[in-house]
């Protein structure tokens, strides 16, 4: 009968939807913008500088300034805000230099986890742009544009350093990398075994 039917709110479903919307939402739009702005601007200036001006010095200084701003912003600001990673160098009292690679620990409530959209923007910009500078380096080398080679090498070094630092933060030490690989292979083996058993049962 119609009296037996009552409306029930699906709290779990609502929580899932809100969690998904939080994950896909960009929480740091300014950081996300500047994460891409400096590095993309440096590439655009490199490509268009001969059309815009005939002064090599002006182009070189502009590109190196943009690359330097990008290096500082990505290393000190956007990495911490967008993905919760940071790396730096510290010197002990003995004068020995140590590289430190850190990843933010996820809280029990998951309140400080980075959004998926920001994470995609961060890693896409971090990986794609150094690859473009490597292509520019080969292009300058094979076309004998020796004067541009120094600028391109600066792009490869500065953006490659950030890429290396954040990969080390994400992956961790070699021990962590080995355990991650072992866990991944174990999970794949378990899935394959379960799939085989399901096929045999059916």
UniProtKB/TrEMBL annotation:
UniProt KW Methyltransferase keyword: no
Chief location of this protein within or outside the cell: membrane
Keywords tagged on the record: Membrane, Transmembrane, Transmembrane helix
Cellular localization per UniProt: Membrane
InterPro entries (UniProt xref): TVP23-like (IPR008564)
Listed Pfam families: DUF846 (PF05832)
A biological process term (GO) from this entry: protein secretion
Transmembrane domains' residue ranges: 29-48, 54-74, 121-142, 148-167
Signal peptide range: none
Membrane topology of the entry: Multi-pass membrane protein
GO cellular component: Golgi membrane
Similarity comment: family membership: Belongs to the TVP23 family.
UniProt name for this protein: Golgi apparatus membrane protein TVP23 homolog
Organism: Dasyornis broadbenti
Top-level taxonomy: Eukaryota, Metazoa, Chordata, Craniata, Vertebrata
């Amino acid at each position: 009968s119609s009296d037996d039917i009552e409306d029930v709110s699906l709290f779990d479903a609502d929580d899932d939807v809100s969690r998904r919307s939080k994950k896909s939402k960009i929480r740091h739009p300014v950081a996300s913008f500047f994460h891409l702005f400096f590095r993309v601007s440096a590439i655009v200036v490199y490509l268009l500088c001969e059309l815009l001006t005939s002064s090599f010095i002006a182009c070189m200084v502009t590109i190196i300034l943009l690359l330097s701003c990008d290096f500082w912003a990505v290393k000190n600001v956007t990495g911490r805000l967008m993905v919760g990673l940071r790396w730096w160098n510290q010197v002990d009292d003995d004068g020995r230099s140590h590289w430190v690679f850190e990843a933010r620990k996820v809280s029990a409530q998951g309140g400080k986890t980075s959004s998926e959209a920001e994470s995609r923007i961060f890693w896409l910009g971090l990986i794609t742009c150094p690859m473009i500078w490597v292509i520019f380096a080969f292009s300058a080398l094979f076309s004998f544009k020796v004067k541009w080679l120094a600028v391109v090498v600066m792009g490869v070094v500065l953006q490659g350093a950030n890429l290396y630092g954040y990969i080390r933060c994400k992956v961790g030490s070699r021990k962590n990398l080995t355990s991650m690989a072992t866990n991944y292979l174990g999970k794949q083996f378990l899935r394959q075994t379960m799939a085989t058993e399901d096929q045999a049962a059916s």
